[in-house]
Amino acid sequence: MPCEAFFLPAQHGQRLCIFHGAPGQALLGLVLFVHPFAEEMNKSRRMAALQSRALAAAGYAVLQIDLHGCGDSSGDFGDARWATWVDDVVHACHWLRGRANAQGVSIESAPLWIWGLRGGCLLALAAAAQLDETCNFLFWQPPASGKVLLQQFLRLKLAADMRNGQAQGVMGALREQLAQGQSVEIAGYTLSAELAMGLQNQALAPPPGNAAPRRVEWFEVSAQEPPRLSALPSAMLEAWEQAAGHLQRHAVPGPAFWQSGEMVDAPELLAATTAALSVLAP
Amino acid sequence: MNTLEEVLTILDKVLNLEGRALLFREDTALLGAVPELDSMAVVALIAALEDWFGLAIDDEDINATTFATVGSLTHFVGTRIAA
Questions:
Q1: Which end of chain B has fewer surrounding CB within 10 Å, N or C?
Q2: Which of A63, A8, A2 is nearest to A34 (CA)?
């Protein structure tokens, strides 16, 4: 099935989008992919493309979007703001739904899924609270919180400085700069204070009230044998179980492809994801 | 598996060494000696250790001494598990 690349007009310019149409008549649903943060986006391009194609072949209309300041979209990473990214996700969801409406496909027959990888899961949660329809979530390796993800990102600077023997006090200095509203430079990326704070404040918690998802398919790849899900606070998992109509957490064997030095695939993750979304009413 | 074997397994998976890390010894140098161990890999390794052993590693504990050799890293993990 061919995919179609186009620029979607948005705030501060345009966003590169790739649309994978579903062949045949029956559309199972709409899927928006939200990429992870900074270098993880580049590392995961191939897996995102492979899964997008597989879901399209399974009957989903899939859209990938490069957020503001990322990939081939307008702006530099240093211009990126959390609020703009959330707006980008909402905007892309509207585009998918608008396209389905134009084809006479109803919301009931084709639910909307937001599929996030790592930081993309957190953006999905923030965007879902602003949507005028209920969406499902497909999570790939959701971080325990935005705070943890930000810490990991800041640690890239710590790790780089460590090699030069200058690691002492690096983290404190970075956090101080951000707290004062200044951008910081990490691994070739300029991180604005607004983006850092937006990320830090986003919990891995179900969106409130009407935005609570009907279905959540949650995947983690694991290097352990047998594969194991990460330990999360029980209160967090209970909140998810109560909020979601159906929550399934899957652990599959595979490498951490979003941070791997070389391009690696996680074929078990691809297969398990396609299988989960091919089941209509679990 | 003892802690050393677990650390070597994690190193092997995180750095994609395809079994080479399993041959490392305690005195095998890591930081600056293993080219795959760049900044992103260090951060990934810390996250993998935290996840595997159920630890929360302090930023203050992340320094060149800890990541100098297989032995120093294993010793560090051992003290965190015991803590």
A1: C
A2: A63
